[in-house]
Amino acid sequence: MPVVEPSFVLERRLLREHPILICLDEVGRGALAGPVAVGATVVDAAAARRRVPQGLRDSKLVPEKRRAEVAGRAGAWAPASAVGWAGSDEIDEVGIMRALGLAASRAILAACGDVHDAASALVLLDGNHDYVSAVHPGALNVRPIIKADRDCAAVSAASVLAKVARDALMVELSAEFPAYQWERNKGYASPEHREAIRERGLSRHHRSSWAIAEAPTLF
């Protein structure tokens, strides 16, 4: 099956009706350890007229060795961008979906700053569930789009930025807890990660409210 290349077709159409778009994608929802991260890119009409950054895809489709390079081009293309976080302690306290909303809110705030008005924007969210409005009911105009990370270049950019940032953080955390091999599995349920949990228990970065012992192996 050929790889679908993202475009700015949808973004250009929506920018006829909205002054800016804020495009979001999350990384780390299904991990057993570490935070969730939400990438945000702010897009205006001028940005959407440019070419799609070279090599840009949904982060899952970009080879790991090339992700940082692609993320650099994506960050240089976007008028503004940021990554928002919610830690494992927040996931345990409020649940994964509300934690995603908190991370998205932080990403939007950081990306917009004092320059862009989030209230006037259309927020494009990859997937079919609006976790942003649960945190800010009625405050933002949010539109979930299935496969937006595959089809919409601005959402793909947010995906790659979040993936590179979160992977780098998990590599840093692995130096403190090397037994879990987060430098390889990034906190997801690899066989080696699960075996380390059985032998050593949970670290302070694990999502302790989850039924981790019964979690399926994802890769």
TrEMBL record:
Q: Which cofactor does it need?
A: Mg(2+); Mn(2+)
Gene Ontology molecular function: RNA-DNA hybrid ribonuclease activity
Residues involved in a divalent metal cation binding: D25, E26, D126
Q: Report the locations given in the UniProt record.
A: Cytoplasm
**Which keywords, in A-to-Z order, does the entry hold?**
Cytoplasm, Endonuclease, Hydrolase, Manganese, Metal-binding, Nuclease
Q: Name one Pfam family in it.
A: RNase_HII
Q: What is its EC number?
A: 3.1.26.4
**Broad class of the protein's primary localization:** cytoplasm
Q: Which reactions does this protein catalyse? A: Endonucleolytic cleavage to 5'-phosphomonoester
Ranges where the RNase H type-2 domain occurs? 19-219
What is this protein's function?
A: Endonuclease that specifically degrades the RNA of RNA-DNA hybrids.
Family affiliation: Belongs to the RNase HII family.
The name this protein carries in UniProt is: Ribonuclease
State the species of origin: Microbacterium capsulatum
